[in-house]
Specification:
Number of helices: 8
Distance between the termini: 11 Å
Mean pLDDT: 89
Number of strands: 12
Radius of gyration: 20 Å
Structural class: alpha/beta
Shape: elongated
Order of helices and strands: EHEHEHEHEHEEEEHEHHEE
Low-confidence stretches: none
Helix content: 40-55%
Strand content: 15-25%
Length: about 230
């Protein structure tokens, strides 16, 4: 999936790091990067898009919570889940105050961590901080905005935002019209495919250099997809 969520796994325990990478790799919704210490993690979030970081507290070069403070200070807004061998309330509070979004105590079941990851990503996507790349545009669904490479802003409606968000998460996969209608307007809605086509038309007027020859939001047999 071209629009998979990019995860950063930060732990100096190579066995645990490799195990998490191996398990997460089974899910097409994720792309995984790794770091073995705090400095590598700080550089990784500066270097490219990271949608969520999984940070160990006990890193060899720096306390993971201090690394989180630095990442937040440098502008990293994506969710951070901290891993710790200490399950005390004080330890949890320290991590959350440092800027972490969630805490998982070792040893943990992978299914629990996976659920936390998905939960944090859902919350992030709905937040004002979420940022995605669609073609030449920076997409901020929380603000209902597309920003061009030159900094011009295109305001989106709520439905246009929802359409782009859903198509973005589908990657290069075609999303059927009925599926898109159900996801954006609701399963009990009586809206028709004509309503959807009208919104797609208006979206193309905003985002396509040549709306009659769409290159970003394209029509495929049975539905639509976004091209990066």
């Amino acid at each position: 999936m071209s629009n998979a969520s990019r995860l950063l796994v930060v732990d100096d325990d190579q066995d645990l790091r490799d195990t998490l990478v191996e398990q997460l790799a089974f899910y097409d919704e994720f792309e995984i990067e790794t770091a073995k210490n705090a400095l590598e993690a700080i550089e990784a979030v500066k270097r490219g898009r990271i949608d969520l970081a999984i940070m160990d507290v006990g890193l060899p070069d720096m306390d993971g919570r201090e690394a989180v403070k630095i990442m937040r200070r440098d502008g990293f807004r994506s969710p951070i889940i901290m891993l710790t061998a200490q399950g005390s309330d004080t330890d949890t509070v320290m991590g959350l105050e440092a800027g972490a979004n969630d805490y998982v105590v070792k040893p943990f079941k992978f299914a629990v961590l996976l659920a936390r990851i998905r939960s944090q990503l859902r919350q992030y996507e709905a937040s004002e901080d979420a940022v995605f790349q669609i073609g030449p545009y920076t997409f901020r669904p929380g603000s209902k905005l597309l920003t061009t490479e030159k900094g011009s802003k295109l305001k989106l409606t709520e439905k246009e935002t929802a359409i782009l968000r859903y198509l973005y998460r589908a990657g290069r996969e075609v999303v059927g019209r009925e599926t898109l209608l159900a996801e954006v307007w609701g399963y009990n809605s009586n809206v028709t495919t004509h309503t959807l086509e009208t919104h797609i038309y208006r979206l193309r007027q905003k985002i396509e250099p040549d709306p009659s020859n769409a290159r970003i939001l394209v029509t495929e047999a049975g539905g639509y997809k976004l091209l990066p």
